[in-house]
Every structure is written in C-alpha cells, then in structure tokens.
Write a sequence for this structure.
C-alpha cells in the first residue's frame, strides 16, 4: 500500500480492508484513519460514532437500515467460554462487522439449528465498510449451535456457529 501507487484506482479494496481489520485485531487498535490522495478510510472498533463512509466503496442495499446500532453482547459474569462438548467444527468471522442472519429483513434466516450444510453453504452475511460478505461454513454437517444474534457486532475470529460433522 504505497502512497504513490496510481495504478490502482481504489487503494482501499476488500483485501486491503480485511488486512487492516486483521491488523487492528492483532494489535488491539481501536481506530485506523488513512488517506491516500483523495480517498480516505476510517475503521473503528467498538461502535459506530457516525463515521463518514470512504469514497469508492459500494453503497448499502436499500433493504438494510442506514443506521443500525450494534446489538450489545449480553454481560457474562467471569464465566469461562463454553467449550464444545462434541468434536464440533467452528465457523468463525473472517472480519469485523455486523452479522446478518438473513439476506434481508423479514426473510427466513440462511440456516437454523438442525440445518444440513455443505462447505459452500452460506450461513450469514457480515457487513464491513458498507460491503456485505457472505460467510460459508467451509465444512459439512449439521448446524449444532448459533452463537450470534441477527445484527450483532462481531469481531475477527469470533465463533459464529458450531457444526456437527457427524450429524
């Protein structure tokens, strides 16, 4: 990501955004604000403070609200994370964003507990920087547990689903 790179009309493509999100997670950064020529990108973790969308990024489809507040995760009093009882496969979030369980509001969710999945089955969407990314299971089996709510803010590497490969 050199500043003088004029061959790429959009220096903040999806791959770059994913790298920046991973960098934020790895170094526990709460904000990154970069500008290259007339394009700017600002990434914030923890909540939306009304940041302006960067230029050159696709708009949000009209069926999603423009200002969806992230749903806060329920408070847990110092309990250790629940370890899977079986040999479940974990479906993790590949990026920071807002999780959506269905393709549009009011539609049936992509999957439910008990749904049979293949490695290419889409189990949800994650909105990051006004882009919607499909989340495939990348394994075969049956959805054993759904660990996130619709419109919940998710972190990079957060477990979203548990899949029973024996199911």
């Amino acid at each position: 990501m050199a500043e003088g790179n004029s061959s790429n009309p959009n220096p903040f493509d999806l791959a770059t955004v994913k790298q920046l999100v991973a960098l934020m997670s790895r170094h526990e950064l709460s904000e990154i604000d970069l500008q290259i020529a007339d394009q700017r990108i600002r990434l914030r973790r923890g909540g939306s403070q009304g940041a302006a969308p960067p230029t050159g990024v696709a708009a949000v489809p009209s069926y999603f609200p423009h200002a969806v507040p992230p749903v806060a995760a329920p408070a847990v009093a110092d309990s250790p994370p629940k370890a899977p009882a079986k040999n479940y496969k974990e479906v993790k979030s590949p990026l920071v964003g807002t999780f959506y369980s269905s393709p549009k509001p009011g539609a049936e969710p992509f999957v439910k507990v008990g749904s049979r999945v293949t490695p290419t089955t889409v189990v949800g969407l994650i909105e990051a920087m006004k882009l919607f990314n499909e989340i495939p299971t990348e394994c075969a089996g049956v959805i054993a547990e759904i660990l996130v709510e619709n419109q919940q803010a998710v972190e990079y590497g957060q477990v979203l689903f548990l899949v029973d490969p024996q199911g």
Notes: DSSP finds one helix and ten strands in the chain.
